[in-house]
Design a protein that fits this description.
The protein is built from 15 helices and 19 strands. By secondary structure, it is an alpha/beta fold. It starts with a strand and ends in a 6-residue tail after the last helix.
Length: about 500
């Protein structure tokens, strides 16, 4: 028998969650760097440079890679000979570890978990509860695999019940473009095959806990059908030309992970869950001798990358910008924004439009005349920070609010991550506005451009409150211009064609 203390589980979970908040897995860093080195699309290369620079800054500063510090997902394998010292259940131990990690004063992590999801959606305040999967196995140890899964990538999960004769690779190739870029590629695809619907989804999630090794697989060659499928899906996914951040390029997927399970003769359940550019997971084992010890990676393992868009970027003063000025901005153009902007996400948009619909004035300090709104839910600041990591959230969630907000205010532009849907593009074109894209997965880097920050409205919404930011040369890309031209459509289409021309026999 092994006796494991409650406190060792709690502190190990807390330490692991802090660790993964600022340390990318080194296999991921190397994979992104390899993709960066061979990338031919300037826009995609710029995006990956920001991701890599952000990653190193977070490792140095011990601050979150992404403002979305995720929903905690834990896989536990509990040895049948384990006993416990303490009165907490295993779920209670894990959740106390989550609570301790997310409230740590030196590196506060954003609380994103809402109770009563179909009703009041009230923030729990400490990012609990975690999603926990427990398996009882032979042995006398506790094996723990945990991840912090961002909402942008989690929202792109797909599930299908195929016919047994259907092609899984065909389904993935057809489905991936429908997922947009809100999952912040380049990243991994986790695929679960078999079992039942819920089993396939759990398999897909668990597969994402594994290290990136598809280049090793390609070198040695596949030894079974699952490995063949990994390579086939990887090649077909990258041939789509979606590219980093959906801007078009050679690398969309860094690895494809597959776990399978026996299934009914009439069924072929398949789930696909992407991991984003803020891939975060850790593994440890407790054997009764104390808590887990996670060794920090060496900073030398990060590539030395410099990124300077100054000479080719248009500098914009947000305090004086006009509609006439934004009409000259070109799709794909890099801008450096300086001046003041307001922030707002789903909850703030809903409340603002509710006030406008009732004829109520907007809160003091909320004036959208000739202003931009930044879709962000920042991390709280620590130490000398003005604001914590403050990268963009997925813009498509705001699509249904875009038309009414443009119509009823003087708003002229929006900043977020990934593409806009047709509803928003039509509204942008109709009102002569623009949509600018910041890189998802570069939240700490973005925060370095924020010189002042204050809450101006809806403080009760926590991280979804409306802030006013004053920024200095914040880098963004013109993603939808005043004519409704979207780089998330033109870029991937161009690079899909280029890849097909370069490798005509490999593209199906």
């Amino acid at each position: 028998m092994t006796l494991i203390r409650n406190e060792d589980v709690i502190q190990s979970v807390a330490d692991a969650l802090q660790y993964i908040s600022y340390y990318h897995p080194i296999d991921f860093v190397k994979a992104v760097n390899e993709a960066y080195e061979r990338e031919e699309s300037p826009a995609a290369k710029d995006a990956m440079a920001q991701i890599l620079i952000n990653s190193r800054l977070c490792a140095e500063g011990k601050r979150p890679i992404c403002q979305d510090t995720g929903i905690v997902t834990v896989f536990l394998k509990v040895g049948m000979q384990v006993q416990w010292e303490g009165g907490l259940s295993l779920d209670e131990m894990v959740n106390e570890g989550v609570r301790r990690a997310y409230l740590l004063p030196d590196n506060v992590l954003r609380a994103s978990i809402l109770a009563d999801p179909a009703g009041a959606r009230k923030n729990t305040g400490d990012n609990t509860p975690a999603v926990i999967h427990t398996e009882i196995v032979p042995g006398n140890k506790l094996e723990v695999k945990l991840a912090a899964k961002g909402g942008g990538s989690e929202n792109k999960a797909k599930m299908v019940m195929l016919n047994p004769s259907d092609s899984i690779a065909d389904w993935v190739e057809a489905t991936l473009p429908t997922m947009g870029a809100g999952w912040c590629p380049p990243g991994m695809l986790g695929i679960g095959i078999g079992g039942t619907a819920e089993k396939a989804a759990v398999l897909a999630k668990e597969s994402l806990m594994e290290p990136i090794d598809i280049h090793d697989l390609r070198k040695r060659g596949p030894s079974n059908r699952v490995e063949e499928l990994r390579l086939e899906i990887m090649d077909r996914a990258n041939a789509l030309g979606i590219g980093a951040q959906g801007l078009g390029g050679l690398t969309t997927v860094l690895d494809v992970k597959i776990l399978d399970y026996p299934t009914h003769a009439a069924s072929l359940p398949v789930a696909m869950i992407p991991n984003c550019a803020a891939t975060r997971h850790a593994h440890f084992t407790l054997d009764g001798s104390g808590g887990a010890s996670l060794q920090p990676p060496k900073l030398e393992e990060w590539p030395e990358i410099t990124w300077d868009v100054g000479p080719r970027a248009r500098k914009v003063n947000l305090d004086t910008v006009t509609r006439e000025e934004i009409a000259n901005w070109q799709p794909g153009e890099t801008l450096l924004l300086s001046g003041s902007m307001l922030t707002g996400r789903d909850a703030a948009h809903k409340r603002l439009l509710g006030m406008l619909d009732k004829g109520e004035p907007l809160p003091p300090g909320v004036n959208f005349d000739n202003k931009f709104i930044y879709y962000v839910g920042p991390v709280d600041p620590v130490r000398e920070e003005v604001i914590g990591p403050a990268g963009p959230t997925t813009a498509t969630r705001m699509d249904k609010f875009t038309g009414p907000l443009l119509e009823k205010t003087g708003l002229i532009g929006m900043i977020g991550k990934a593409e806009r849907g047709q509803l928003a593009i039509d509204a942008i074109k109709q009102h002569g506005a623009v949509y600018l894209m910041a890189v998802g997965g570069a939240a700490y880097l973005v925060s370095k451009a924020i010189r002042e920050a204050r809450v101006v409205a809806f403080e009760d919404l926590g991280m979804e409150a409306i802030h006013e930011f004053v920024v200095d040369e914040m880098p963004v890309t013109v993603a939808v211009d005043v004519n409704g031209v979207s780089v998330h459509r033109t870029g991937p289409a161009l690079w899909k064609e280029k890849i097909a021309e370069a490798h005509p026999l490999e593209v199906k």
